[in-house]
Each structure stands twice: as structure tokens, then as C-alpha cells.
Amino acid sequence: MAIYNFWTSQGFIKTSELIKYNWSSGSSQSGIEVNFSELNKYPLPDYSNYTWALPNTPITASNTFKLFGFNRGSDTFEVRLAIINRNDNYNGYRVYDIDVILTKNGSGIRCDTFEPLNTTQVLINRTIARPFTHFYITYGVSSSYSYGTRAIYDYNVHTINNNGTNFSAPYGSFSIGIGCNMNTNNIFQNSSSPSSNGTRIINKTIYIVSGYTSSYTNISEYDTLLEWYFGKNVKYVGDDNISTPGGGFGTGDSSTDDNPIPDTSDTTDFEATNIIMNGSGLFTTHIMDTNSIAQLVHKLWDTSISAALEKLLGSKPLDVIISLKRLPITISSSATRNIYLGTSNTEINTPIVTNQYITVNCGTLYPKEYWGNALDYSPSTKFYLYMPFVGIKSINPDWFQNKEITIKYIIDVLSGDFTCFLQQGETTDTIHQNVVATYTGNCAMQYPLSASDYSGMFIAGMSVIKGGAAGAAIGGAAGAVLGAATSAANTLTMKPTYDMSGSYNANMGFCGVMKPYIIIERPIQSLPDKIEKYVGFPSNIVSILSSLTGFTKVQDINLSVNCTLDEKNEIESLLKRGVII
Amino acid sequence: MAIAVKLYKTSDPTNKITKTLANEISLTGTLKDSVDILNPQILISTSTNLSKYNYMYIADLGRYYYVKFEIVKSGLWLLTGRCDVLYTYKTEILANKAVIERQENQYNMYLNDDIFKTYNKTNIVAKNFPHGFTRNGSYLMTVLG
Fold it and tell me: Cα separation of A542 and A242, whole Å?
């Protein structure tokens, strides 16, 4: 038996989690409560509790269990309820699939009848919503609880005005009900009758009146609610009516499988590594500013100090300076220290770096589906990421569509080397942020401290320029990609060699865009209006044809019709070409 | 062989299972020669102009037909039927279960499909992440000692 999730006041729950209702034969106090939503906006309708209908005679073989709908007053809508399926072998429970159909321009009462015989256990299991009708109702069991000695069911009814127009009625927008022995008098006991909403007894028949007039002007609400019922938020398992994943060996639901790698991910996040620098006596990294640099240069070129240092160190004072560089991040520190050149105190006091690694969190973006169909995924949609000091990278949109995408850098301030982490996470799950890609590079702009340093850097820089990448590898990337010019794109997406050599080619990164961005290339859909009426949309379901309406194209059928072979072949051929039901 | 026919007008598409039939008239004709029940031919003598009808039901054959007319001579019509298997076996057809490839109302738009046609041009957007690097940054000097 398929397990369905459907919306309840507690959120989506599975029918298997429902408490089954014991429709006890002989009981005079079993009943069903009908619970109407108040047509509030998506996604969380408020629920109004209406009084319950109580059959005061037991359900027996001679009694009839009816679902009914009623069109009230001057409404121009027909509510029709029908039991379309039942299953007597579901753990001893009789299961009803209830189809709620609302069509406009109807009138009067339509009843569909089913006799439960001596069934003692009844479970209203499933609702089929009909989006093609004027209204849209889902009807299902959400929970059961006891009221005194009575077992009571909750039902949820969602309605949406499909075409965005108002509808109204003198006594309420529509009526819908569920009960027993409707044809017999005194079947239902009356309970309270609110002035506008609730249970009413008219001619011995109980009507549950919504008493609500709705107005929906934004059709997207309808689409959104439709998605809740038929989209990704409703998971069907083993159902004939939807495509199921997998190769036929699993259910596609790790919660029911003993799967060592379930649907939910472990967190593969990282932690910033705080390796304490300094204090070793080997080196010290000072956080400089232009003023302190100027002071230091003055000291270095002071001949008396320079001579003293050279005499003391046996080498030039510049030799004690391992590196001078600029990193594209603001580093602050409360620890300070005078700059020592060897053992000589320059008496220039600056903050010093205490942690070797610094994390730069560039934040999170949430790419959302644009068309709400297969076009939102590869190969139709393309995602590119520009990351400073890395360049533009193509990433898989299937991984990030409707999910979070986060970029973090961890930078070694000693060398300027970094690892850029690309994280993916569910927007509804702030815990599982998984690293799915990494890039490495260097973001330190090295400054020459001697003529030989400068010469080396110049030669290396020129070699990059000769390679044709230097000017374009770092900035203005989006414009060229937008133009889709291959040559420009190649140039723009070409990385400098700094991520391989880890050297001063990173200097050029400072000329580029300093903030990462995502580039999304979306297809522009051309979808003729109402094309589904002519060729249908992809379906891939198994269904009884009578439960469908509109254009239907059959893929496979074991046709059972009492006719001639020629007729059977023609019917099959027509069904496979597409018919209108 | 005399046979009763009912003629109708219908404007429904031929691939619609349930047809809406209107303007029913009942006539009696003669089956021509041997009967192909899928494509029967019937001679009808009537002064009624039958050319505006396009649908026929023959109770004796239990089938609905699309029909075309030939005027054999004044007042004598030759009706040639072509069985509409969809409407004739409507109830039995609809009771069948099938794998549905395409449907107007029960669909899954995430299935890849040729129906999703696109322009050759594309729409490209760029969106900045909230944070990034700073161009000025920090100067770091590492010295021995």
C-alpha cells in the first residue's frame, strides 16, 4: 500500500502514522468531525473546528455510508465526492480513496454511495485533488482524538479559487459533508449550529457550511499550493501515479530502507585552523600601515643604523625581512610588538599577527527555480561562479538549484595561499552545509624588497602577459561571459598561474573583482498557451483512464475491450496518438 | 435488409472519447450488399437534406459511426459509415488502466521533455555574494626573529 504524505495542521504526515479510526459496529457514538479550512492564504490555512456529526445508529450491512456534497443557495458550483477505490487488505482496515471533484455550474446535491457492510474499521486514506476544476479541495484525515467516549476524526479541506475570482453565496461559499445513513431520519444528532459556520440540519441532512467567501487575486498562490500537493514536498512511495526513482530494487525512501547512506547528509563543514604564530623566535609578522612602512624605510636607509646592522648581522639589513606583502583582507590584532631587525630594536611598534589562518566568509546565495520545470536544471540552465583570485568556474546547477550556495576562503596569512570552499546546503536545513568543491590559489601581493626581487617579478609578470591571460584573468569577467564570445570567455575564465606556483602572480588578482558572484544562464522558455490541451505535459503515471480528464496520450496499455481485433487495434492506436477524455 | 439509423451532428474532435451529439433524426434504410460492420453502406430514401449530418448510430450493429453521404439520385442517399471506436466502446475503454505518457492535468514538469522549447538566446543574470575581499587590505611584513 502506498504511503502518502499530506498536509495537516501538524504539517505533512504520513498516513501510516495516523491513528486508525475504529468505526465500531454497534456503537452509538462513533462519528466524524468535519474540519474546514478558512481559505486563508498559502501556506498555512487556519483551521476552524466545526461541530461533529454523530450517527446514532451503528454502521451495519443494511446501512449506507455516504459522502455527499451540497450546493447551497445561489451558488453555481457543484461539489461531488466519490469513493474511487477501496482496499480491504490494509492491515485489516478498509481503506477509502476519496476523490473530491468540484465543478462549476452544477446545482443540487450529488451523492455517491458506498456500503461498508460489516466493516468495523474504516480509514479515510487518500485524497485526490482536481486542479482542473474550478475549486480545489483536498480532503484527508489528519488525526484522530477522543471527545468523551467518541472517536473523532479531523478532516482538512483546502480550497483555492482557480481563476482568481470571487465567489460568494448567501449561506456560505459551499458545503461539504461526510456522514452515515443520510436517507434515514434521525441519523445525525444535532449539535451546536453557529450563526454562519458549522453544522446545520436541513431536512434531516447535515450540511457543514463553510460560511466563507474567498478572494484570490494572485494565481501564483494556486500554483504554489499545487506544488505542495504534487511537487517535491509531497513524497510518493510506490504509488502508481507518479514516477518513482531508483532501479526497482529500492523504495527511494531511505527512512524505510536500511540504507547506510540515507537521504540526509552528514555535515562536511570545516573549522578555521588557529595555529598560533610568533613566539617561536624564528619570525614575526607585523601588521603594517603606510606610516610604519615609511618609518621602517627611513631606518633602513639611515646609514648609521644600516652600517651597525650590517656589522652586527654580517649581512644587509634587508636580509632579515622575509617578506612584505599585502593581503586583500583587513587584519587586526590587539597584540603589538616593536619591529626588530635582528637584535636591533627599531622602536617602531605595530600590531602582530597571532593566527596563521583566517577565514573569510563571503556569504550565501539562494538560487531559486525560475521556470519550475526541467529547464531549471542542466543542461538547460548553467551556473558559473566568479571567485576572487580563482576566476570563473562552471558548477553543476543541479547541485545548487533551490539550495544554498556558500563561499568561504581560508587564507594562510604567512604565504597568502588559500583554499576556497564551495558549500551546498538545503535552505530548510541550516545544519547540513556540505563542502562540494574546493579551489586553491594565492592572494598575497608581494612587494619587492631589492632590485633583484623586482627584476624577478618583472620577468615573471611579463611571461604571464605573453601568455595572454594576465590582463583579462582578473577582472571584468562577467561582461565577457555575458557576451558569450568564446575567446573572451576563455580569457576570462583562464586562471593565472598563481594557484599552481603560489607566487606573486597573485598580485594581479588585486585588479580584479573583489567580491564573488554567481552568473546564471537561464533558457528563455517558449511555451504556447494551453499547449497541454493539445499534446499534454509529460506524465509517466499509471492510471485508470476514467480518472483522467483532458488530453491523454497512452504509452502502454493491455487493452481489455470486447470488440473485434481491428477495432481493438484502432482503439490502441488512437490512445497512443492521444485522445481527449 | 432494412435497418434503422439515427443521424446526428457533432462538432467534437475526432479524438474525443465522449461526443456531444445533437439534432438527432431517425431514419430507416437498406444495408447495401454484404455488411462491413466497421464501414457499412446504407441506402436511404428521404427528402431530407442529410448532407449537414456527420454522425450515425446503428442500433442493430451497436456502433457509432462517422458518416459521409453520396447522392445516388434525387432523394436517394448512400451513407458510408466509419466506426468511431472511441465513442462506441467508451465505457470499456475508460475502465482500462494504462501507462500515461502525456496528460493535460496529471503531469510532472520535472520530467525532461521536448515540450520545453527555448529561444536560442538566453537570459543571464549575475548576483553578488554578500561579502568579499577588500582591495586595500592589510600590509604584512615578516621578519626573522
Answer: 8
Beta bridge partners of A67: A112, A178
Strand order in the sheet with A21-22: A21-22, A121-128, A93-104, A77-90
DSSP 8-class letter at A271: -
User: Measured between beta carbons, which residues in chain A are less than 8 angstroms from residue B115?
Assistant: 527, 531, 535, 537-538
Coarse DSSP helix, strand, coil percentages of chain A, rounded to the nearest 5 percent: 20, 40, 45
Which residues of chain B lie closer than 8 angstroms to A536, CB-CB? 101-104, 107
Strand partners, B140: A287, A325
Q: Which of A224-233, A442-451, B120-129 has the highest mean pLDDT?
A: B120-129
Please state whether the predicted TM-score (pTM) of the whole model is above 0.80.
no
| Whole-number Å distance between alpha carbons of A163 and A131 | 11
DSSP A214: B
CA atoms within 13 A of residue A269's CA, in its CB half-sphere: 14
Q: What is the distance between the alpha carbons of residues A337 and A133, in angstroms, rounded to a whole number?
A: 77
Q: How many C-beta neighbours within 10 Å does residue A529 have?
A: 6
Reading the block at residue A333, the C-alpha cell is: 590584532
> In terms of C-beta density within 10 A (0-12 exposed, 13-18 middle, 19 or more buried), how is residue A337 classed?
middle
Q: Which of B118, B140, B144 sits opposite A525 (nearest CB)?
A: B118
Cα gap A334→A451, rounded to integer Å: 34
Are A408 and A420 in contact, with CB atoms under 8 Å apart? yes
Among A2, A45, A256, A16, residue whose Cα is nearest residue A141: A16
Q: Are A333 and A287 in contact (CB under 8 A)?
A: yes
DSSP element (H, E) containing A478: helix A477-483
Residue A65: partners with Cβ closer than 8 Å, 6 or more residues away: A59, A113, A114, A115, A116, A122, A180
Reported confidence tier of residue A435, pLDDT bands at 50, 70, 90: confident
pLDDT in tens, A206-217: 233 332 222 222
Q: Which spans in A21-157 are helix H?
A: none
Average pLDDT for A352-367 = 87
**How many residues belong to chain B?**
145
Residue B11 forms contact with A (CB below 8 Å): no
Does A102 touch chain B if contact means CB atoms closer than 8 Å?
no
Q: What is the CATH T-level fold of the domain B1-130, as seen in this structure? A: Thrombin, subunit H (2.40.10)
Measured between CB atoms, does A575 come within 8 Å of chain B?
A: yes
pLDDT tens for residues A5-19? 223 333 332 222 222
Rounded to whole angstroms, how far apart are CA atoms A198 and A182? 18
User: A452 is written with which cell numbers?
Assistant: 633583484
If one compares A280 and A447, the residue with the highest pLDDT of the two is A447
Q: How far apart are CA A236 and CA A314, in angstroms?
A: 79
Measured CA distances, A236 to A88, A125, A132, A243, A550 (Å): 21, 14, 21, 9, 23
Distance CA A375, CA B114 (A): 11
